[in-house]
Write a structure and sequence with these properties.
The chain is an alpha/beta fold. It has helices at 40-47, 90-100, 111-115, 131-144, 161-176, 212-219, 224-235, and strands at residues 2-11, 14-24, 29-33, 55-60, 63-64, 75-78, 149-153, 180-184, 197-202, 205-211. Bound molecules: adenosine-5'-triphosphate (ATP). Keywords: ATP-binding, Nucleotide-binding, Transport.
């Protein structure tokens, strides 16, 4: 579904991505893990076409994304920090997005809007929302257009435990429909029940891409957080 081949990205002298090759397929829920500054967000932005690699290429359903912007309508993206016009209400932001996507949008998926109980807050302005509520708006937008691929950057940061569970259940439900999800998170306990694959990055390099089962076998640890802690301490 998404294949990155030898992707390299430099910001001046800093190599943020160093020859990264990854294959992601339908039905996988991938956890993208790595220390701060290891290149996770840069990689996600390359997949989204927001950062252009210096070398290497990325295909989405076998088409090179460099020559095809249409593919982005198949991706729901939840950024690490959602930036919205502060004076707009939640309702206006949702309407604006629906308006922009009108031509390509099929049936809308408003399940998260209801589960997060955003219905009762539609009149609130974005600038007045709590951090967690802002996250809920970002998550709802990522799922709204029923995309085949979900790219979620630190989705549970700032969410309360109930909202985290609601989001996890939604991700699992979408996976059962064959969707691909890529999730970055430092809160690994949040990912334990939903992840099928782990991509581990360090200093811009792909250290490994393996199934959760394989990682558990290699480290002898059942919990993702303990398995990754072991990988990280072995690298030091
Ligand atoms: N636009 C940019 N200009 C210059 N340097 C950048 C830019 N974007 C990212 N970087 C640098 O690239 C490196 C990788 O950053 P990136 O945000 O991809 O890391 P990350 O793994 O997502 O980190 P975190 O876990 O802290 O979110 C960092 O050293 C960062 O400072």
């Amino acid at each position: 579904m998404i294949i990155a081949t030898n992707v390299t990205k430099k910001f001046s002298k800093l190599t943020a991505l160093d020859d990264v090759s990854v294959t992601c397929t339908k039905g996988q829920t991938i956890s993208l893990i790595g220390p701060n500054g290891s290149g996770k967000t840069t990689f996600i932005k390359c997949l989204l076409g927001m950062v252009v690699p210096d070398s290497g290429f990325i295909t989405f359903n076998k088409q090179n994304i460099a020559h095809n912007w249409q593919y982005r309508s198949a991706i729901g993206y939840m950024p690490q920090i959602g930036r919205y016009p502060e004076n707009m209400t939640i309702a206006q932001v949702l309407d604006m997005m629906k308006d922009i996507r009108k031509r390509s949008a099929g049936a809308l998926d408003e399940e998260l809007i209801h589960s997060f109980r955003l219905d009762g807050m539609m009149h609130k302005r974005m600038g007045t929302l709590s951090g967690g509520t802002r996250q809920k708006v970002s998550a709802s937008l990522a799922f709204l257009f029923n995309p085949d691929v979900l790219i979620l950057d630190e989705p549970t940061a700032g969410l309360d435990p109930l909202s985290t569970e609601i989001l996890k259940e939604k991700i699992m439900k979408e996976k059962q429909q064959g969707k691909l999800a890529m999730i970055t998170s430092h809160i690994l306990s949040d990912l334990d029940d939903i992840v099928t694959e782990v991509i581990y990055m360090e200093e811009g390099k792909l250290r490994f891409h393996k199934s959760l089962g394989q990682l558990q076998e290699d480290t002898g640890e059942k919990k993702l957080s303990r398995a990754i802690a072991q990988v990280m301490s072995a690298g030091n």
